[in-house]
Amino acid sequence: MVLSFIIFIIGGCSERLHEEAVAKADVKESEGSLNIERKIPLIKDYLPNMNFVPRSNVTTHVVLHFISNAANNPENPYVYEDIRKIFIDYDVSPHYMIDRDGKIYFLMPESRAARHSGKGELSAFSEYKDHLNRYSIGIELLAIGTEAEMESMMSADHYKKIPQEHIGYTEEQYKALNLLLEDIMARNKEIKKDRIHIIGHDEYAPERKTDPGSLFDWDRIMLEGE
């Protein structure tokens, strides 16, 4: 009986270790191919404890978000190390992040299901309810929305401490986002360059999320049919 239990435990651990080894091998393999195919500058800085869950084989969406550390540091809300710590502390994991100067951080391989969308739904993709992470690539932009869009995170008095230049998006971010979207779509043919497949977090989860918000200019990313 004891021997059987030990064998069961060893077998379970071996299976888990095998799954993680396979996942890590997949990541390594995908990294190699991505490095060959990519035509844009990236800063690779993978988050620790990456989600080892593979995505769906069919990736159909890109989800845009905003993030800052304004709740803790309104005067200087875009320190990279602070933002990275937020991802780690809250166990969230976008694939990419674009800073105010247009630098693109590569935080997680596209082959993994990043934790960026959470619960929500899309009327045209009912089967994706609460599971958009499996079918999407997440991009965070360092930005801050309107006072109303930030009210769940901070008071009006706190919001007023944020310098005006930190509100909204920068020209460099739009340029970098266009380059990144083109790069992503070159590898993921099911992602179409339109407002059905490139969406905001606030469209998927309107009762919970306000990003990328009303200050994000969708006309700046040159979508088809716009």
From TrEMBL:
Enzyme class name: hydrolase
GO biological process entries: cell wall organization; peptidoglycan catabolic process; peptidoglycan turnover
Record-annotated membrane-spanning stretches: none
EC numbers: 3.5.1.28
Reactions catalysed: Hydrolyzes the link between N-acetylmuramoyl residues and L-amino acid residues in certain cell-wall glycopeptides
Protein name, UniProt field: N-acetylmuramoyl-L-alanine amidase
Origin: domain of life: Bacteria
Start and end residues of each N-acetylmuramoyl-L-alanine amidase domain: 47-213
GO MF annotation terms: N-acetylmuramoyl-L-alanine amidase activity
Annotated InterPro entries: Amidase/PGRP_sf (IPR036505), Amidase_domain (IPR002502), NAMLAA_amidase_2 (IPR051206)
PANTHER family xrefs: N-ACETYLMURAMOYL-L-ALANINE AMIDASE AMID
Record's keyword annotation contains Metal-binding: no
Lineage: Bacteria, Bacillati, Bacillota, Bacilli, Bacillales
UniProt keyword Cell wall biogenesis/degradation, yes or no: yes
Gene3D superfamilies, per database record: Peptidoglycan recognition protein-like
One Pfam assignment: Amidase_2
Keyword annotations: Cell wall biogenesis/degradation, Hydrolase
